[in-house]
Design a protein that fits this description.
binds uridine-diphosphate-N-acetylglucosamine; 4-stranded mixed sheet; about 425 residues; about 30% helix; alpha+beta
């Protein structure tokens, strides 16, 4: 498997353009199934998960054409409701095809979805919500089959604001009979982008207060041309890299208002941030301060996807800090590798205690999931000597080319 080679101990200086958002692109690609025509999606990131989604859509009867970052999805001839196991087991996001396939074909069957190894990832909330909309689900342990003789709008409240379950309900509700009132739904920016895409296609979706959506199922969606927004997690990763390694960077096109929790932590740590028309300037010249206690949570709280990159910056800070993970129960897997580099992090239950002020040393380390892999690359930037991050394919699931991007920031990073 390919690796990332990093020569460490150098600050970052430069400009990098932030790629299109993975977590916005995937559900919007799924939502294109609701439209019997050709949707054009621009600025789609060139990453493995988007490729997998293209293959799944082709397998179920769509025509998918891709030129650079533009993807045209023609779902007019959608025929197949069984999702191909090969891709479903590799990518958790395939679960979000349930809503649109139920809407278009009235049925869907899929193997249990895969994805990053970051803790338990059940789909009970998806199943429970769709059942309330008139879907009969059967799970034989290997495959989940869901059938509907007509989706119906209803009032439903999610037990937890799951991002994927919210997206599935929105897509099913757009195709349902009547009005769906969805309460306690996720408020991540990607929910807003999905709704925005669907509204561009003619859907009626209105936000009625925080975590509450009113969706009028009315069918008859029409195709549209839509530009995928920039990726807040990629922008946040490079912000963490600049915090940890020091320097000054322009994150071109970094989203505005989507990373407030991280930006607050970065300021506490002594970084200067300035928003201009071009994006976000990050400057960390002086000492890096410990941010104290940080806790992940649903938006607008600190995003779980940036927990591992922030851990690396915390390890470089002067003084102790702690990071509590409340979203996924297995997301400190990267700590073992960071500790091999000298981070000295202690994990107790859901909280990582980071002593700070540690000089990391370059090592051969191994990624075991997407964001943890990116965190190891950042650790390599700060470390004394050379680092090789193996299992790069995990990182490629979410970053178009992390080596290219970090080279734009002046780092000495190469494909290994
Ligand atoms: C999405 C994001 C992922 C991010 C996560 C949380 C995409 C493609 N992925 O993942 O990058 O880390 O949101 O912000 O957008 N849960 C259940 N039952 C369910 C569904 C979820 O118990 O049926 C639990 C999960 O195990 C987890 C928590 O809810 O502990 C959050 O999961 P969820 O919000 O659904 O995340 P994803 O949509 O999978």
């Amino acid at each position: 498997m390919k690796s990332v080679y990093i020569r460490g101990n150098a600050s970052l200086y430069g400009e990098v353009t932030i790629q299109g958002s993975k977590n916005a692109a995937l559900p919007i690609m799924a939502a294109a199934l609701l439209v019997p025509g050709v949707c054009v999606l621009r600025n789609c990131p060139r990453i493995a998960d988007v490729e997998h989604m293209c293959r799944i859509l082709e397998n179920i009867g769509c025509r998918v054409d891709r030129v650079e970052r533009e993807i045209r999805i023609d779902a007019a001839q959608l025929t197949e409701s069984r999702l191909p196991k090969k891709y479903v087991t590799r990518m958790r996001s395939s679960v979000m095809l349930m809503g649109p396939l139920l809407g278009r074909l009235g049925e869907v069957s899929l193997s249990h979805p895969g994805g990053c190894v970051i803790g338990d990832r059940p789909i009970d909330l998806h199943v429970k919500a769709l059942s309330r909309m008139g879907v009969a689900c059967q799970d034989d342990g290997e495959e989940l089959t869901a059938v509907s003789c007509g989706l119906r709008g209803t009032t439903l409240r999610l037990d937890y604001p799951s991002v994927g379950a919210t997206e599935n309900v929105i897509m099913a509700a757009v195709a349902a009979d009547g009005v769906t009132c969805l309460e306690n739904c996720a408020q991540e920016p990607e929910i807003g982008w999905l709704c925005d895409f669907l509204v561009h296609c003619g859907a009626s979706i209105v936000q009625k207060g925080p975590g509450r959506l009113l969706i009028r199922g009315q069918g008859g969606l029409h195709p549209c041309i839509y530009t995928i927004p920039s990726d807040r997690i990629v922008a946040g990763t490079y912000l963490c890299a600049c915090l940890a390694a020091g320097g000054e960077a322009l994150l071109k096109g970094a989203p505005c208002g989507e990373n407030d929790a991280l930006e607050k932590a970065a300021r506490q740590m002594g970084a200067g941030l300035k928003r201009t028309q071009d994006g976000l300037w990050v400057r960390r010249a002086g000492p890096l301060l410990a941010p104290g206690k940080i806790e992940t949570g649903s938006f607008p709280a600190f995003p779980t996807d940036l927990q591992s990159p922030l851990l690396v910056a915390m390890a470089q800070a002067e003084g102790e800090s702690s990071l509590r993970e409340t979203v996924f129960n297995g997301r400190f897997g990267v700590v073992e590798e960071l500790n091999r580099m000298g981070a000295g992090i202690e994990v107790e239950k859901d909280t990582a205690r980071v002593p700070g002020g540690r000089r990391l040393s370059g090592k051969r380390v191994r990624a075991s999931e997407l964001r943890g892999g990116a965190a190891l690359v950042i650790a390599g930037l700060c470390a004394e000597g050379e680092t090789l991050v193996e299992n790069r394919s995990y990182v490629d699931r979410g970053y178009e080319d992390i080596c290219r991007d970090l080279r734009f920031l002046g780092a000495c990073v190469q494909d290994g």
